[in-house]
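Researcher: Good morning. I'm working through a list of sequences from a screen, and I'd like to move beyond sequence-only analysis. For each chain I'm collecting a predicted structure so we can compare shapes side by side. This is the next one on the list. No need for commentary yet; just the structure.
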Amino acid sequence: MAFDRILVPTDGSEYTKPAIMKAIELAKMAGGKITALYVLDQTVLTNMPMDTAVMNVYKTLEKEGQEAVDFVLNTAKENGVEAELSIKEGTPVKVILEESSNYDIIVMGTLGRTGMSKLLMGSVAERVVRAASCPVMVVRAPEVN
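Model: Good morning. Structure tokens for this chain:
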């Protein structure tokens, strides 16, 4: 199986960096292309009234997203791998699953959710592994202290 189209979901956290490096390594070996995906998580915004504070949160998320995908693009470029970016709105699991049919493989880390957020959302990686339309490689990050 050729891995020409590689999807790399990122949330900009340290937890996703080992997966990004693994995706770049895979793309180099296979001559593939990487798409860095950042999902603007609407669940953060749904329970808030649309006012200036929410718009500021949204802008911060947008900025984080841009930084997250820029890290992938720059690292890929440094390694001679073709990469493009995709920023979408929605819930991470749903968006990643919708995108999965367009790719040969998804390479992802365990997104950096902690505490209550992880408890409520479950593991994004686990849910993607169960329902994706293509193979999924999950790269565990070393424990971040």
